[in-house]
Design goal:
4-stranded mixed β-sheet; alpha+beta; 118 residues; 3 helices
């Protein structure tokens, strides 16, 4: 019974974290995932699979039924720089350019591609 109470406490903590800004970010992310799935599903030669429970390093897997090839994607919202700046690496970032997101080590191992929803 004690472990069940611990799970209930974790659920309460998780629901608290979804309030405010993180809830907005989560809804924008979900919206972008659905739009990406719809874009791939428009092609009659592709089938889109999504992970159960929405957890993990992959947001969707797209199977091309004509070639038998499949590709895993992590969907990201396209965000653009508001102003120019030059960080320590001295490579100048220009205003209006896409902010690139990196893959995790696990995603690199799984050969996941990032899909930016614009």
């Amino acid at each position: 019974m004690a472990s069940l109470n611990g799970m209930a406490k974790r659920r309460q903590t998780a629901s608290i974290k979804t309030n405010g800004r993180s809830r907005i970010t989560a809804s924008v992310g979900l919206y972008n995932e659905l739009i990406a799935q719809a874009k791939f599903a428009k092609d009659p030669n592709k089938i889109v699979f999504i992970p159960a429970m929405g957890k993990g390093p992959i947001d969707m897997v797209v199977l091309d039924i004509t070639t038998g090839e499949y590709q895993a994607y992590d969907v990201k919202s396209a965000n653009y720089r508001k102003s120019e700046y030059t960080p320590k690496d001295t490579y100048k970032r220009r205003a209006g350019t896409l902010i690139n997101r990196g893959l995790t080590d696990e995603q690199k191992k799984l050969k996941v591609k990032i899909y930016y929803n614009k």
